[in-house]
Amino acid sequence: MDDVFSFSWGIQCYITLKLMFQTWASPGVSRAFWSEILSKLGYKLTAYWEEGFTLSNGEDAYLTFVQVKEKYASHNYNRSGVGLNHLAFRVKGRSLVDSIRQYCLDNNITCLYDERYPFANGGNDYYALYVEDPDRLKVEFVAT
Questions:
Q1: Section 68-95 average pLDDT
Q2: In terms of pTM, does the model score above 0.85?
């Protein structure tokens, strides 16, 4: 699975996702968001503890989310600042992208660039959905 990590200084990295470690501010809210939306891609909850949880696709990738430490809790995330801009997941087919979008609309998840969905990048060959997680990280689902 080649996923995209885009950093604010303009570099896009295409990598095979093995591990993504993310801190979050709202434990219950973030776990519900990520568990539900990534279940559409086959990810399952594989570990859970008081300060975090892990989701895995059962093959070659897993994401671990941990509670932000108290001393950093006041440092709000901004995807336009230095650091990670967004996560992109390749999705098998346009119908799955549409299904994820409908799930987001039904569950009041912020869809970014929705007025240009599904071609927010401008052309007709890049079919993608962009949403925000509870901590405002941009998440992209692009049809392959």
A1: 80
A2: no
